[in-house]
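pinned: reference chain
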Amino acid sequence: QVHLVESGGGLVQAGGSLRLSCAASESIFSINTMAWYRQAPGNERELVATITINGGGTNYADSVKGRFTISRDYAKNTVFLQMNSLKPEDTAVYYCYAYKRGEYWGKGTLVTVSS
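pinned: its C-alpha cells
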C-alpha cells in the first residue's frame, strides 16, 4: 500500500502561482510513475502531468504545457506540481496518483482560481 497526501491547494487570483505537494508513505525510488490529475465540478477526472520516477521523463496535458511543471524530490519522497499563470479554468480538485504494481490515489486538494 502506498499512501499519498496532497497539500498546497488554495485560493489564488488569475495569473498567480501555487505549488502542490504529494508526499508518499514510502521511498519514491520504489514507485514507477507518479502523476497529477484534476477534476472540476461536473467534469471527468483528467490527467494533468506525469513523471517517471527513476528516469525523470515528464508529460503534460496540452492545456497546462508551459505553465505547469512536475518534479520529484527523492529525499522528501515527494512529487511537486508548480503551477504558474493560473487561469479560472484550472479550478479543480487536484489528485496525486502513483503506480506501483497497482494504482494509488490521494484524497485531493482543492485549487480555486478567481478571475
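why pinned: The chain is about 0% helix and 55% strand. The chain has a mean pLDDT of 96.
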